[in-house]
Amino acid sequence: MPKFTRRELIRAGLATGALLTATQCTRQQTTQQSSGGPTVNTNQIKDVTLRFIGTGVSQINEIAQKAQEDLGFKITSRALSTDENNQIAITQPKSYDIFDGEYFSLPLVVPSGNLQPIDVNKIKQFDKIVPYFTTGKFKEGAPVNTSQGTAPSKVMFLKGQDSTEFSPTPTDFATLIPFQYNADTLGYRPDLTGKKIESWGELFDPKYKGKTSILDISSIGIMDAAMVVEALGLMKFGDKGNMTREELDKITAILIEQKKAGQFRAFWKAFDESVNLMVSGEVALQSMWSPAVTQVKSKGINCIYAPLKEGYRGWGGGIGLSKNLSGIALDAAYEYLNWTLDGWLGAFLGRQGYYSAAPETAKKFMKPEEWAFWYEGKAASTDMVDPFGKTLEKKGSVRDGGSFEERFSKIVCWNSVMDEQKYLVQKWNEFISA
Length: 434
What we know:
With 434 residues, the protein is an alpha/beta fold. It contains 17 helices and 18 strands.
């Protein structure tokens, strides 16, 4: 028989009806009964609808449309805040098929048992994933700073097919398949700051009183705050990603003091909120994410993603499977996982400033000048255009922070869930409501 790829079988389906004899149908029914599992009818792939939950950062209409065109099934999505996304993943497992979340959320989500382990043997490009996720190292073998926070490699694998326990070493069962990640920092408008921002500590500079903002997601916002107070010499943390109660008490007191002094203009949960704050000029300096900076630039406003001297806060996002997926819907979900690593998505996200989990495949979908600018830190040989056709950077500009290796070698902590997570949320809420 000729060989078909799994994707071809699912998309095209198998000829049935006249080619199947009554005996074959009976045999199929017997096999199904004896195996205890359903027989998947691949002709029904067009009838599959996968329900996504995720943050607004990655729930982008153009991505869903392209996936539907390439894969032949339907996708619906809900764009949520990080906290809402985690809550639904934990408490409403029947309301979604695909969990699009961050690795730092997994110590909260995985113990619920609502995500089924991913068989990495079904992921064709798994060996192309950057080692940050699988071993915690650079592609050359140099270690990445994984000592502070929840580095993705710490929660990438599970101990077994039915396990909810993380494995410190690679196994055949993954929690998520990564597709994007970045090194986060502060964003600012140089026309409003009047100077180059070089330190996290400048977020508390009285010069910008009433013109700053910080991210209102407790697990992430507290780490941005820790970068600030540590830069100012106000505190020193053993692990910014896993603070003690005493450290949480002290940093909360500092944050409340800054808030009461009028340092903050606002707090934001979704990146579009941070875009609006920056575009309107309400803030000059704030916690930001790469797509937010991209959107500000696309509106013709100069916004810089600051390469701060103290380093970056790292994060990674991926796709997980609901425990309720089975049969043809599960097959479709694995097709989507493979699609995310094929290259188109990596290139699409790369044009917003993210990095692909499989750069080798993304490179095939990027022009040489795009790859040189976004990954190699070289000056743009032509105008850089985002995925929506808007010019982000003019010819001759250089990416903030330099090359891929330069940026990730300066990560000093990772988004995380702390041992004192409940106490953190309590203290963070005290700050926000003060």
